[in-house]
Amino acid sequence: MSLSSLLVRALSDPLNAVGSRRAIGYLGWNVPVELILAADAVPVQLGALPGCGTELADRFLENSFSAQSRIVAQRWLDGGLDALDAVIFSRSDDNAQRLYYYLCELQRVGVCKGPKPLLYDLARIQRGTSVAHTMESTRALAAALRVDESRLPAAMERVAVREKMLAELSKRRTADEVPLGSVAYRIERGARTDWSEEFDRSLQEWLSNCATGAPRKRVLLVGSAPADDRVHNAIEVDGTVVVGEINEASFLAPRAAVSGDSVETIARRYYDRTNAISTLLQSPADLVSAARALRADGVIVWMVATDTGLAWQAPRIERALREASLPTLMLTSKPQTLNADTLDQIAQFRRTLEVA
């Protein structure tokens, strides 16, 4: 099957790739997929689906929940996730953490059934006790998933191979001739959803033959992780190309030093990852350096209203980018769905880049 067909299958519904195998879902960006693979299960990242209503979820969730969380709740309540053995919720994702507690309570009072909810309690503070807590949480999660520790080295290698290809894709986007950003981001989303070896083969073939072009203008997209291709498609008009993203979804986990204990290595890797992206988003100087490395002609900072943690960083990010003379469009406190006003702002920003 071609990579394009695999992406359609995975992104139309991540459960399409499950088949009859044991499957474990997860919500959030910092969940150790290695543990799911070592538990002889199919990892399924849950998120937004095209055309999925949220009528049941709206009865229980406030407006502060993200669109992805609302859709996961909807599918949980209507039985659409019953095929999953369990679902892991990342504590480092505020929406995922809150949804975990809501669903546990709804199960307790008998409103719904569904898979077993599990919380991955990854600490975010940079101190020794946080590292120790994350290692303890990782061991607890491994036990809950019934991980076969003898399978962990192979699972870690499996993830390393996938991320090596994604790193190659990111490298291609720094060149003079680049693939469309919407295509690259679609591949990154699919790579978190379809963990089949067929996907690896198709991605490798695509990397060997991918179509590229010289963009007229290069844009860096910073902030919230888009749930689909619409933000990229709105930007990529008349030769403008998104050459990179800085958000929790697109950030590859750094390779932790391998210790004799595989669970400890995995725990350290995800602890380092969540702190690395937090540090980057809180360091405007590093964002400027990233934009320079990508030779960005402009930066769009897109933050959805439900991503409350990012809002505190917006003024510092804007000031640093403007002081660096990087044309910047601030789109903050936005709804998940692009509205006419946002589309007009993006179009006007593209026109200013053309005359710059």
Quick synopsis:
It holds the Pfam family HGD-D. The chain has helices at 3-12, 33-38, 67-77, 94-108, 128-145, 152-172, 181-191, 197-209, 230-235, 262-281, 284-293, 308-311, 314-323, 340-355, and strands at residues 23-27, 42-45, 86-90, 116-120, 217-223, 240-246, 298-304, 328-334. The protein is α/β, with parallel strands linked by helices.
CATH class of the domain at 13-142: Alpha Beta
Strand percentage lies at 5-15%
Shape annotation = globular
Number of helices: 14
CATH level-3 fold name of the domain at 13-142: Rossmann fold
- Rounded to the nearest angstrom, the radius of gyration is 20 Å
What does this structure look like?
Belongs to the FldB/FldC dehydratase alpha/beta subunit family. This is 2-hydroxyacyl-CoA dehydratase. Pfam families: HGD-D. With about 350 residues, the chain is of the alpha/beta class. It has a domain of about 130 residues: Rossmann fold (3-Layer(aba) Sandwich). Helices cover about 50% and strands about 15% of the residues. The protein contains 14 helices and 8 strands. The strands form 2 sheets. A 4-stranded parallel sheet has the order 2-1-3-4, with helices on both faces. It has a 4-stranded parallel sheet with strand order 6-5-7-8, with helices on both faces. The longest helix has 21 residues. The termini are far apart. The mean pLDDT is about 90.
